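Q: What does the assembly look like in three dimensions?
Context provided by user:
Components: four
Sequences:
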Amino acid sequence: MLVARSTAQAEDAHVVTVIDVARQAGVSSATVSRVLNGNTTVTAEMRERVTAAVKRLDFRPNPMAQGLRKGQTNTVALLVGDIAQTHFAELTMQLQAALEENGIDLLLYNLGHSAKRLAEFLVRCVSMRLRGVVVALSDNISRSAAPLFTNVEESGIRVVSIGQDLTRFGIPSIVHDERAAAQRSVSYLLAKGHTRIAYVGRIKGSAVGTERFRGYQSALVHAGAYREDLVWDKAFRYAAGRDAVTYALESGAQFTAVQAASDEIAMGALAALRDHGRSVPDDVSIIGFGDVQMGAYLRPSLTTLSSHPEMAARHVCSILTAGDDSAGAIILERALIKRESA
Amino acid sequence: MLVARSTAQAEDAHVVTVIDVARQAGVSSATVSRVLNGNTTVTAEMRERVTAAVKRLDFRPNPMAQGLRKGQTNTVALLVGDIAQTHFAELTMQLQAALEENGIDLLLYNLGHSAKRLAEFLVRCVSMRLRGVVVALSDNISRSAAPLFTNVEESGIRVVSIGQDLTRFGIPSIVHDERAAAQRSVSYLLAKGHTRIAYVGRIKGSAVGTERFRGYQSALVHAGAYREDLVWDKAFRYAAGRDAVTYALESGAQFTAVQAASDEIAMGALAALRDHGRSVPDDVSIIGFGDVQMGAYLRPSLTTLSSHPEMAARHVCSILTAGDDSAGAIILERALIKRESA
DNA sequence: CTGAAAGCGCTTACAG
DNA sequence: CTGAAAGCGCTTACAG
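A: Here is the predicted structure of the complete assembly.
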C-alpha cells in the first residue's frame, strides 16, 4: 500500500510571498499589498480575489520585509526593572496581553536596575525601528539620560513610562499616586492610635520608593510623629524586611507599626517579627504596598495598598497605538486594602 | 547671547547605513559587511578603515535588513504558560539574561495555558523567521500539535522545551526530574512516620503536575499507603491550596502531611491549616515544590524541592546557539530543601 | 582580496 | 483604480 508523503512544504519549505498571491489572484503585487493594508482604493472584485488567494495559500506577510519597507516594526520593547518581582511580572503579563490584542509583539529586556544597560538599550533601539518602548523602572533615572530619550523619540519611536513619572523628560507616564497612598495608610495607622510607625525598605536609588517614603514622612511630620530613627534602609526584597526588622528589634527600637515599601518587604518583616515572638497585629501592625496576590494568603493576611497593572497596561497601549502625543501623566489611585495585619 | 542649537541629528535623524560607512572608509559596502560579519578574507588595513568609520559614525546595522537578507532574525520567542507565576518569571529572567549575553533578543508571549494560542503562534512564527522558539509550558500538549512543531522546525526555526519533556515531538527538552523529586519528598515524610500524606493541587491538564503526582503516587503505593481520597484536585495557584485543604478539613479528612504541587499551593494550604487552628508542622507537615524565594520567608518556612532555572536557561541557550541538534532530554535533579514546615 | 550587482519580501510614490 | 518600478538596508554569490 502506497501512501503519498506530504512533501509539498516539507521538501522546500517554500515560503509564499506577495508574488505568489498576486499570481494566484491574477493581479499585481501592489494590489495585494493594498488590500492587505486596507487601502480603500481597491475594487471589491480585486479585493475578493486577493482575499481568496491569501486564504488559499495561507499567506502571511513577512514582518521583517514590512518593517524594513515601512521603516517601522510592529513590536514594542519593554524595559523592566526586575521581572522576578511579582508586580513587574504582573505588569508584563498585562502589557503583553494588551499589546497582543492590537497585534503588537513584545520584546522583553530585564534591566536589573542597571542604568548602564538602560543607556545602552536607548542607543541601540533606534536602529531597531521599534513601534515604541515602554519603560517600567522604579530606579532613579539620571538627568543625563535626557538626550538619549530625546534621540529615541526623534527617531520616531514612542516612549511611555509606567510606574514612574518621567514627564520631565517629555515622556507620557502612567503612575500610581504613591505619595497619597502612603499618606492614606499612615493616616489609618495614626487613627488607630499608633505613634511609633516605622518605615522599612527605603531604597535611596528608587524613585518610586522615594515617593512612597515621602508620603509616609509627610503624614507623620504633619502629625508630629516623624522619627528619623524609625526609617530603615536595607537591602532588597524579602530580605530587606527581615533584616531591617531583625536589626531594629535586636537593637531595642520601639515601634508598634510598620509601613513597608512593598508587599515582599512586608513579608520579610512579618517573618522577623514572628521570629522574635512579636504578634501581628497585636504587638505590631504592618502594612505592605502593592497588593500582590500572595498577601491575601499570608497569615495574618496582609493589609496593603492596591495596584492596577491592568489599567496601567491599557493606558500604555492606547498611548502607543493612538496618535495622541501629549506627554502628561495619568495618575492611578491606590486604595487601602484592609486585612488582618493592621 | 547666541547658542548654537544641536540640530544635526534632530533635523533629519539621518540614519547611517553601510553605504555611509563604506563612503567614509573608502571601500565598498560589501567590504563593510564582510568586516561586520567577521569574514576573514579581509585585509587588515581594510578592516581597520572600516572599524574606524563604524566607530566614527556610530553605525549600527539595521536588524530588519539583516534579518530579511539572511533569512533569519536574531530573536527568540519565549512561549510561557503564565508569567505571573514566580517560577515562570524567574525562568524568563534567566533566559533573557542568557540570550542577551549571546546578543539575542527575546520576544515574550504569555500563553495563559491556551492550547489555541499555542497553535496560532506556531503557525504564525514561521513567517517571523525567528532564531528559535522556546516553549515553557506545563500544560499537556496534544498530539495534534506535532505537525505544527514539525512545520516550525522545517522552516529552520529551532524549538526547545523547558520544564516539560517534549522529546516525543522531536524537541530537545530541559526538564527537572519531577517524579524522582516527589518520591524524594514523600520518602522523607514516610521516614518521619507519616502514613496519611495528602496531595494537593493535582491539575489534570498539567503535564508537569502529572509527573509530580506520579512520583508521589508511586512512592506511596510502594509503601502501601496510597489513598485516592487524599488526592485533591482544585483550582489554581494559592487558592487551590487554601480551598482544597479547607474543604478537606471541613469534611473531616484525616491526614498528617501534605505534598503540594507548587510552593504557591503550599502557601495556600498553610493558610487554610492556620485558619483551622492546625499547627504546622506539629499537626500537619507540608512540603512545597519549586523553591520560590517566598518560601524561605513564610513562617513556618517552607520545606520544598529545589529548582534550577539558571542552569536550565543556560542549557536552552546553548542548544539555541550551538549547532547541536540532538533532540534528547537534559534532566535536572531537584533536591529536598528542609525547612520548618516538614 | 575586493567590488558591482542582485535580491531578501514587502510598500509606495509615480504613471496611466 | 491598477501596475511597473524603485527602494527600505543589508549580505552574498559572482566576477575579477
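Follow-up: Chain A touches chain B through 63 residues (CB under 8 Å).
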